[in-house]
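Reopening this one. Same input as before:
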Amino acid sequence: MVDTIAPGVSRLALDRPGVRNAVDLATVRGLIEAVTCLEDPVAVLTSTTAGMFCSGADLSVPDPERAAVSDLLYELYERMVSSPVVIISAVDGPAIGGGAQLLLASDIRVATPSMWARFAGPGHGLAVGTWGLPSLVGRGRALDAMLTMRSIPASEALASGLVDRLVPGEDLMSTATELAAGIVGLERAAAVRVKRLVVEGDSLRYRLVAERRANGGWAGAVPPTPLSPGSTNVDV
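Same output, byte for byte:
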């Protein structure tokens, strides 16, 4: 869902609550189109449903589609970091696999205490998050998160730099909107230049391309580990 929530501020809201906002082919294509077509200086990436950000790739789809989703997500991340639009993620609930990488591709991350993240790539035969996590949390923390695939609670995410602000659930969107409005008030060329120089300094596009190529032969055939008993939608 795409709409305007304040002057100069767009909202991109994931809206698949039945599968905890798991990403299928239509969703990733829609996100790519939405990010590409953004005209406002700032956008807030969030969910239409409280307590639910993104559970990663939709595991109910056939393996070939899931492999295509995994690859296209890298195009989405590259467009996010390359866009002149400042993208703020407003996160409530789990951000897993591809959902966790949406945090990395965002420029600023605001979360609630119920947020948690997990980078579960190796469990699916993938290297996930190597392009962006070390620059946020450091090499040791990044390797720990990616190789153990453990859940990272909101308090640790804030302390390590994975998220930038932690606010009560009822204040999530108002905080993100207020932050966005302040950025809208800046000279746009300067804000664009700040983002571009930071992204270039961290070599994010180069790292994205490297991780995408390294995962390019994946066919989606590695048996997934369920998020919880009975779950069919988790991460990639």
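So the earlier flakiness isn't reproducible anymore. For the record, The mean pLDDT is 91.
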